Amino acid sequence: MKKIHLVLVVLLYTFFSASSFAADLSEVKGKITDGSTQEPLVGATIYISDLKAVTTTNSKGEFTLKNIPSKGRFLMEVRFVGYKTHSQMVDLATINTLSIAMESSVIESAEVVITGSPFSSNNKTNSLSVVTVGKDKLAQAGGTNLVDAISRIPGVSQVSTGGAISKPTIRGLGYNRVLTMVDGAREEAQQWGDEHGIEVDQFSAARVEILKGPASLLYGSDALGGVINIIDDLVPPPGVFNGDFTTSYGTNNGLSASSLMMQGNDNGFVYRGRVSYKNAYGFAYKNTTVPNSGFNEFNLNGMVGLNKSWGYSHLTFSRFHTNIGLVEDGPNEDGNFVNEDGEVITKAEAQQRRLGLPFQNINHYRAALNSNFILGKGQLKTTFAFQRNMRKEFEESAAEPGLNLNLNSYTYDVKYYFPNAGKWEPAIGVQGMYQKNVNKGDEFLIPDYNSNNIGAFVYLKRNFEKGAVNIGARYDYKKVNGQDLSVDGEQVFNGFDNKFSNVSGSIGFAYEVAKNLVLKGNAGSGFRAPNIAELAANGRHEGTFRYEIGNSKLKQETSLQFDLGLEYTAKYVTFGLNAYANRIFNYIYPGNFNKETKDLTNEAGEVETLPVYRFVQTKADLIGGEASMDFHLVKSLHFENSFAYVRGINRADDSPLPFIPAASINNELRFEPNIKGLAGSYVKVGVSNVLKQARFDSFETQTDGYTLLDAGIGASINTKKGKLNLWVTGQNLLDKKYYNHLSRYKPAGIYNTGRNVTFGINVPFM
């Protein structure tokens, strides 16, 4: 621990005295034109992600990238609406003037991905399945949170708890099997829990990259199912100060959400600040409002940093604060919610924004220092982060919490990228984390514990003219110590000292078999150590409908997944096809075996009977695939279609695995007319078909299929300060009553959210 603190101090000193890295300033100039007409493109964005360097073209289509190294190879991308995203490797030691002709296209493709590989690369050289969602689509989705906004990506689902809480699942795997990256650091916020989602301000996400499949090679434990990488806004070009204000309102639960952001770049000194607030009452379906299912959220985050010729160093910090109402019981036989006296709760009462008991309060603090130092022609990337998660659940009193968990996490990630000539790209890295959790309440679900883990990897990529191959290996070691606890002579937790270690690897390829047609394949192994709840849980906490008992004898999970994909990208049509087979050894899951129950008595003397869920292990298979197709037979008309299916098999008896999402088919027709005075105008209609989930574990029930109708309209207005965006999004417009198979409220007879219309506006300034 002291060593970690020492390293943090050294890095902070380096950050604030970065002039010690003094080097000759360099710049790259160029011109961006239309490939057909040779006309200059005004306002195109040029970006080098590994340097956090960005600029835009002027009225002549010319640009200048300032404060960048004088040597090194980096991937540069150029974006402009109506044109295919252009990406190319540039050698700063030999190139200082560029001329780029953009190819017009109604489909912006060749997205640069960062999650899938240590080296930034476009889709043609990336062997892993990665999907990117930009800021505009996140806003237009009308989601109540970030996971809700990406839940219709093929292969992505959500474990939902009403309108407030969503946890991501990727290809049937969720919780601690999906890793969330924020500010370059892994989020550590009691991910094992059902009753809270990703603890990050959704307004701060400029782009979300979703890696589908095992990513343990690059991230270690907990990336067995995939990674969700939340990337913040681009810093503005030197000499620019700007900002924006976003606000929206949702009709279903009265969700008002607003965010104010300001940022600037003063000759390489970059800074950003954001404040956001959300407030909602209980969500509704048909003519029913679910009482005490509202929430409020207040977030603060900021960044200060330096972009210089030696690289960059950015210090980010944030505070995420939310209060979420917890629903204890479902409706009665008449479909009404009643209070403790058996009286029907009226709609007006259910729509009160003041939360009642029980509710939970979460504070999550995060500070991360991200740097990239250019050492000759190589690069040293570092991320050091501290997170404090304080989670409280209030049951009998709003003054004293029952459950009070306090988790401190220290993480570090150091990677070195060797000099390369564009063909061979080698990298090595070391990552680690120290955690300490303390119970400060009078109720206990998990014990006090501390954990320490470290991992190291080597990675090699070989680029060819029409593709690339990559290979890598990794070693991980993790130690978890759970503390013994007795209360009033009753044993609550037995102490344990567990150790886990694993060797994992990955090999993959991407090859352009024909023009615009790319074949991808990847074979990778994954690793996940059991989380603290699986090892030691012993109790029930508010917001769940079960009593959980952990097993300290659990072994680590390991997996072997094969992934094969085919992608075609042309001017007016794209399609993608992915198939995968994932075998998981020692797969951990909770089950209600032999219909075991436990009686609990509250302070009022009332007895509640809960099903007991115990954690066990088995060999499991997850087999499935995703398909997507986007037609643009008419330039302004888009017809997007996708399909996703996953089948989970318990190899012990060939029975279904629990918590597997149903197959889904999503279709969207989008019309983008050219309207004088407006930009980015669109009208869209979407239909989502979720099929019946007839494969379920013994303690689950069948979930019927359903169809949802969505629609939206929006436009951008050009102003002197930038584009003013307006949008209206409607979800479940037919107000369909349905259960999602992964809804945690389904066992209580509470339906998913009904009709919702969201009105939004984004206003630029300065």
Can you put this structure into words, describing what you see?
The chain has 766 residues and is mostly beta strands. The protein folds into 2 domains: 78 residues, Immunoglobulin-like; 637 residues, Maltoporin, Chain A. It is built from 6 helices and 45 strands. The strands form 7 sheets. It has a 22-stranded antiparallel β-barrel. The chain has a 5-stranded mixed β-sheet with strand order 8-14-15-12-13. A hairpin with a 6-residue loop joins strand 5 and strand 6. 47% of the residues are buried. It is a multi-pass membrane protein. One of its GO terms (molecular function) is siderophore uptake transmembrane transporter activity. This is Iron complex outermembrane recepter protein. It is found in: Cell outer membrane. It comes from Pedobacter steynii.
Spell out the blueprint of helices and strands.
Elements: H1 2-16, E1 26-34, E2 45-48, E3 53-56, E4 62-68, E5 73-79, E6 86-91, E7 97-102, E8 129-134, H2 135-140, H3 146-150, E9 156-161, E10 165-170, E11 173-174, E12 178-182, E13 185-186, E14 207-212, H4 216-219, E15 226-231, E16 241-250, E17 255-266, E18 269-280, E19 284-285, E20 288-289, E21 295-308, E22 311-325, H5 347-350, E23 359-375, E24 378-394, E25 403-417, E26 424-439, E27 449-464, E28 467-482, E29 485-487, E30 490-493, E31 496-514, E32 517-528, H6 532-536, E33 538-539, E34 547-549, E35 557-569, E36 573-591, E37 597-601, E38 607-634, E39 637-650, E40 655-656, E41 664-671, E42 678-690, E43 706-719, E44 722-731, E45 756-765
